[in-house]
Structure formats: structure tokens, C-alpha cells
Amino acid sequence: MTVNDDSFTNWKNREETAEAMIPIIGKLHRERDVTVLLHSRSLVNKSVVSILKTHRFARQIAGEELSVTETMPFLRALTTLDLGPSQIDIGMLAATHKADDRGLSVEEFTAQAVAGATGSNKIERSEGRDVVLYGFGRIGRLVARLLIEKAGSGNGLRLRAIVVRGGGEQDIVKRASLLRRDSIHGQFQGTITVDEANSTIVANGNAIRVIYANDPGEVDYTAYGIKNAILIDNTGKWRDRAGLSLHLRPGIDKVVLTAPGKGDVPNVVHGVNHDTVKPDERILSCASCTTNAIVPPLKAMDDEYGVLRGHVETVHSFTNDQNLLDNYHKSERRGRSAPLNMVITETGAASAVAKALPDLKARITGSSIRVPVPDVSIAILNLQLAREASREEVLDYLRDVSLTSPLRRQIDFISAPDAVSSDFIGSRHASIVDAGALKVEGDNAILYLWYDNEFGYSCQVIRVVQHVSGVEYPTFPAPAA
């Protein structure tokens, strides 16, 4: 048998194992509300090839190959346990078991590692929480996709309605089409039908009422059977407490803004300060995509090395706030053609750091350049550290943070030498550390942080909503403190 034959046989064997994983992962998700992860990446509703590629990608971050033949025993072990709602990372189970010297079997080790999700320790399955989207633009539609994706277990968050201004003939058909197809993020994974008579979009069995209103005060959500809901404002029209309070109508319990909040509105970056949100807080902001990209790695660096001062330069994709061709705009430079120019503009991300990291004493400044790409941006974080470090030390530290720390859902890590912006379309992390671009000299460190400013940010929004609605389930094995 040739080397080629050996490689192909090995591939077919791994393909068969991945095929066997799919029904196990699906059953755990539907029946027990358990989400199976691999190094923080969900394997729910993934194809055979996607499962294999996710395992292969582990080499980029963990430094060594991870095979489905290594993780499958841990997945099978999970089926023997009395599991409650949780997220379980089989990549972490395999890695920690390999490093464990107690001689435990896979079954024994798995039972101990996920003990917090079994028996008397398991939490009760949630009855679900209604969600309303106010606005249905770029972020609104991606948040909708994520909510629909996560509704598979029948618990957790339930997208009940979308509020938009009337757009004329066949409005609902056109909005459903925009949800179905996206030029950047591809086709919707599932089926979408439209019930024009009842003003409803049905996506993967989820009936979503489309409500037409020109003002928040026009809507009584209880008339649509909606109660105790989280409303996600994607318009950015209202950013202070007074304006966002207009949404607190019958049926709405909390309001989450997908833009930086003003005044005393809490700016929340999941993974960093989400646990400081008071239970009785009814209005909060998820800050900006750039704030979400820089605050987690900034916190990680400050925790380990101390940060005395810093500057962030964002090279940001263009957005709907800019013009396609030169035209009037309230901002001086954003009126110039977005697809044809690099446009110097302002960013509030640096000043927003203080809200998310109040204990950080370092002064952080920032600026931004919009560039002619439709999605994925990069933040260049230039830090003066409180102590000197080597490039290898910082790389090892950030790799470990991305794998085992409480920030592993926010910070990803890539060592591919030829990585470019389009490689990160669809990333679910708040930011991705580019190992090849990292520069460290003495007490100066420069981090290059990629981020999908649409999808990665939308994932952070969903995490915040899950947290404040009480349906954020614990992850096992627990990340290192």
C-alpha cells in the first residue's frame, strides 16, 4: 500500500468517526440541552467535514494534532452520564486527560471533570426567554441567525418578533430574503418561509412575528403573546437611558443596545465585566465591536504584565454609516466613497475601555481608518508594559489564554503565516491574536488582533443576552482562573 493509500484510508476512517459523532452531539443538544464544543467551537449542527476541520484547526492553537479518534471516547462517555444543561469541551477533556497522571480511565476522568453538570449539581432546564429585535440591519439579521441556531433544544432564548418601519410592497418578503441570503456570511443554514397574511417569518420552525412601528411607544408586545422579553435594539438611534427606556413597554423586561451606551448605561463586554451587571439592571449596552475586540486581550495583558499606557489603531471595514459614492454626510470624511478610499475617522473604543475595565489605570488612546473591505477588521494594540518580556513568553501566554482561561470564548489565536482578513469571516470570537505579527521588545508589546466586526460582535451580544436572561449555561471542564 502506498503512502497515498494510507492517507486516504486514514481520512475515510476519521470521516466515519465524525459521522458517528453527529447523532450523539445532536441528541445531547436536543434532549439534555448540552452543547458539545471543541476548543470553544460548537460542534452542534456541523457537517462531517466541518467537524474534521475543527479538529485539524486545533493544531494552530494547541500546537499538536487532535483527532476525532481521541475525542470520540469522551463524547461516548458523556452519553452515560446524567447531564444537565451545560457546554462541554471535548477538546479540553482530551487535553487535560492526557496531562493527568492519576491513571484514570476516560470514563472516570470525564465523570469527574463534568461533575458540576451531573446529578444533584445539574441546573434545571430553562423554560426559555422571549427575545425581540428592534431593527433588522446587519447586526440584527446576524443576531437573528444565531438565535434561530441556538433554539434547537427548545429551551433558552426564543426569537418572537422583529420590529421595523414599514417599507412598502412585499416588505416582509424582502426582509426574509435578506435573512436567507447574505453576500458576506453566505446562505442561512435551514429553511425560511413567509406567511404574509399573518406577518410572520418562519425560520427552521421558529415563528417570528414582524411588527411594523415608527416609534417604540406604538407597540404593546403582550398583544402578541410576548412576555418578560429581552429587547435588542440594533438601530443605535437611542443610546442613553432616557431614550432606551422608551422600549420598556408592556411585555419587555430588559433592553440591550448593540452600540456604545452613553451616560450611566453600563457598557458590557462578555468575559470581562458581564458578571458585574446587577440583576435589577433593565438597560445595558454591549459596547462596540472594537471595544469587544480590544478589551479581553487588554485585560489578559494587564493581568500578567501590567499595562502602563497604550494606543489602539483600528483598520476597520466600511459600514452602512458611510456612503457608496461621495455625498453629503454629517461626518466630514465619512461622506467620501467607502469602497474607493481609506477614510480616517474617530473611534470611541479607547474611551470605552474605562467603562469595561474600571480597574485599569493605564491611559488608552485610539484612532481608526476605514478601508474598502466589507467585513473583518484589525486592531493594532501598542502597549507599554510594567515589566519586560520576550516575544516567545507573550506568545505562549496568549496561546494559553485562548485555550484554557476564562477568556477563551473571547480570544482566539492563529499562527498561520499567510492569514488575511477574509479568513476570519464568521469567527465567533471577539478577537483573534495573530501570532506571526506579534512584536515584543523589552517593555513594549504590539498585538495584532483580527475581528469579524459583524459576526464575532453578534456572538458577544448573544452571550450578554444569555447571561442577563439566566440561560447562560456553565462550561466544563472549568477554565483555569
Task: Report on the architecture of this protein.
- There is one protein chain.
- The strands form 3 sheets. An 8-stranded mixed sheet has the order 6-7-8-5-4-9-10-11, with helices on one face. Strands 12, 13, 14, 15, 16, 17, 18 and 19 form an 8-stranded mixed sheet that branches.
- The chain folds into 3 domains: 3-121, no CATH class; 129-259, Rossmann fold, CATH 3.40.50; 290-457, Dihydrodipicolinate Reductase, domain 2 (2-Layer Sandwich), CATH 3.30.360.10.
- 32% of the residues lie in helices and 22% in strands.
- The chain is an alpha/beta fold and 481 residues long.
- A hairpin with a 2-residue loop joins strand 1 (34-38) and strand 2.
- The mean pLDDT is 92.
- The protein contains 12 helices and 20 strands.
- It is globular, with a radius of gyration of 23 Å.
- The chain starts with a helix and ends in a 5-residue tail after the last strand.
Number of helices: 12
CATH topology of the largest domain: Dihydrodipicolinate Reductase, domain 2
Biggest β-sheet strands, sense, barrel: 8 strands, mixed
Please state roughly what percent of the residues sit in beta strands, choosing from under 5%, 5-15%, 15-25%, 25-35%, 35-45% or over 45%. 15-25%
Given as residue ranges, the uncertain stretches (5+ residues, pLDDT < 50) are none
CATH C-level of the largest domain: Alpha Beta
User: Which architecture of the largest domain would the CATH scheme give at its second level?
Assistant: 2-Layer Sandwich
How would the global form be characterised?
A: globular
Helix percentage: 25-40%
Average predicted local confidence, pLDDT = 92
Number of domains: 3
Radius of gyration in whole Å, from Cα?
23 Å
Structural class estimated from helices and strands: alpha/beta
CATH homologous group name of the largest domain: Dihydrodipicolinate Reductase, domain 2
Amino- and carboxy-terminal Cα gap: 49 Å
What is the strand arrangement across the widest sheet?
A: 6-7-8-5-4-9-10-11
The count of strands amounts to 20
